[in-house]
Write a structure and sequence with these properties.
With 195 residues, the chain is of the alpha+beta class. It has 4 helices and 9 strands; from the N terminus they run ββαββββαβββαα. The N terminus is likely disordered.
Length: 195
């Protein structure tokens, strides 16, 4: 007997321009990106300082099946704020789900909040992404062989020197899909803590 499985679409919390979650309002992920409805996301940048003093970040390679930026290198972990959740809950949840990394809330340092808007085309459809992002930092020397990857989201993880990340962001190849301004701000915070 054939079994039908219904894919339940993610419901996102609607956010206002002050990065507050509007209680009782939600929107489907698809509709948010089709219509450019403001929603929230948490971004976690995991970093370490090598023996030579260079700053390295743990990057994930997005699954080739992702609806946006398939196959590119991205932030350590990120996710939309689902209805009923907040930014910190989401950061912790995504670290666990995508990478199998569990941390305590006080291990994450809130870096900054940014208003982000970018429109692209993926798989022949407009992708209008309007987000309020909270950026978190986590200084932790993760053994990548211990990561448990969420296969539908992440195909691999690797450590990469911050200088190579900046070059990759600014190259025409487009292999790294991290926002340049966001990464510059993150790197500035990390450098101020490691000097």
């Amino acid at each position: 007997m054939e079994q039908n499985t219904i894919h339940k679409e993610e419901l996102l919390a609607v956010i206002d321009n002050e990065s507050s979650i509007i209680k009782g309002e939600s929107v489907s992920r698809t509709t948010a990106h089709e219509k450019g409805i403001l929603h929230g996301a948490s971004h976690v940048f995991i970093y370490r300082v090598s023996d030579s003093g260079s700053i390295e970040f743990l990057l994930q390679r997005r699954s080739i099946n992702k609806d946006s930026y398939p196959g590119c290198l991205d932030i350590s972990s990120a996710g939309h704020i689902e209805y009923g959740m907040d930014f910190l809950d989401t950061a912790l949840k995504e670290l666990h789900e995508e990478l199998g990394i569990d941390v305590k809330p006080n291990e994450l340092i809130e870096g900054f909040t940014q208003n982000y808007h970018r429109t692209d085309i993926f798989h022949g459809k407009i992708f209008d992404n309007r987000e309020i992002n909270k950026i978190y930092l986590l200084k932790k020397d993760i053994d990548i062989s211990s990561c448990v990857l969420q296969q539908e989201e992440v195909s691999e993880v690797l450590w990469l020197d911050s200088n190579l990340i900046q070059k990759g962001i600014n190259s025409e190849a487009g292999e790294i899909c991290i926002d340049a301004e966001e990464f510059d701000r993150v790197l500035s915070i990390v450098k101020s803590e490691t000097i």
